[in-house]
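Lecture notes, unit on protein representations.

Consider one protein chain, 102 amino acids long.
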Amino acid sequence: MKKKVDILFVCGAGLGSSFAAQMAAEDVLNAKGVQAKLDHVDISTAASMKPDIIITAQNFKTQFEKFHIDETQTKIVYLKNIVSKAEIEEKLVPVLIEKGAI
């Protein structure tokens, strides 16, 4: 049985780019038949949450490295182009397989 995953989309304010990334990822998730709970938040809120996967822009990597996120529990996917369905699929699918969602 496939596991439902909790995916958090993160940007500076938790509004614009994280929501755009969420919409692009929804198409990829639907095409793969993945069941997921999706939400979008700002970086400081994300640091206190424990989702299965965090999806964020590459430029936030240094900020995430300052937080103590247990990457054995929460995988972080960094995107160069947050609305690129091809990049989302390329980077997210291996994580979804690892998490048992595919």
